[in-house]
Design goal:
By secondary structure, the protein is an all-alpha fold. It folds into two domains: 105 residues, Rna Polymerase Sigma Factor, Chain: A; 46 residues, Winged helix-like DNA-binding domain superfamily/Winged helix DNA-binding domain (Arc Repressor Mutant, subunit A, Orthogonal Bundle). It contains eight helices and no strands. Helix 1 packs across helix 2 and helix 6 packs across helix 8. It holds the Pfam family Sigma70_r2. This is RNA polymerase sigma factor. Belongs to the sigma-70 factor family. ECF subfamily. Keywords: DNA-binding, Sigma factor, Transcription, Transcription regulation.
């Protein structure tokens, strides 16, 4: 692990093993140095993803703050068996972006009397199945070759088109399409029984 305590470093290079060590330190000891290292590593990456998804720099920065605050406050919810730290953080980022854009939606006002609201009571069985399903999907993603996983994450976490992915990775569009098709085939085989 390099440069995790250097506040002047704009971006650090950490391995997935480093991510796991830092998350454990945050969860177990509320270690601010570990959080700073994670922030320095993921902050610029999350901001870049947000900007690639259409957020202006100020909104992207706000979303980074939201994401990292969620990481700090919900670190106890991270489960290594469900996926890597980076997958967890990028999922938080994706959800934060979706939530923010939903709130900023320009939908016209609707009278509350005309809206039907579903019950907020959580069905324990549904929650359990959703959690298990998310864990299985994360594991299946981790088993993909790195070049296929990167394309799938770019498409679904960063919301990029195949053309944008091809440009970002300096690959022919056909290569991106074939890697995506291969990844889908592998994911489908691994997740066939998952509902």
């Amino acid at each position: 692990m390099r440069a995790i305590h250097n506040p002047d470093c704009a971006e650090t290079e950490l391995t997935p093993e480093d991510h796991l060590v830092l998350i454990k330190r945050i969860a177990e000891k509320r270690d601010r140095d570990a959080f700073q290292a994670l922030f320095l590593h993921f902050g610029p990456r999350v901001k870049a993803i947000m900007q690639q998804s259409g957020a202006d720099p100020a909104l992207a920065e706000d979303l980074v703050q939201d994401v990292m605050l969620t990481v700090w406050s919900k670190v106890h919810l991270y489960a290594a068996e469900r996926g890597t730290v980076s997958t967890w953080i990028y999922t938080i980022a994706r959800n934060a972006r979706i939530d923010r854009f939903r709130r900023r939606s320009s939908r016209p006002y609707q009278d509350l009397d005309t809206i039907e609201v579903a019950s907020e009571e959580c069905n324990g069985e549904d929650a359990l199945f959703a959690s298990q399903r998310a864990g299985l999907v994360a594991l299946a993603l981790e088993e993909l070759p790195a070049e296929q996983r990167e394309i799938i994450e770019s498409a679904f976490v960063r919301d990029m088109s195949q053309t944008e992915i091809a440009e970002k990775l300096s690959l022919p569009l056909g290569t991106v399409k074939s890697r995506m098709r291969l990844a889908y085939t592998k994911l489908k085989a691994k997740l066939e029984g998952v509902q």
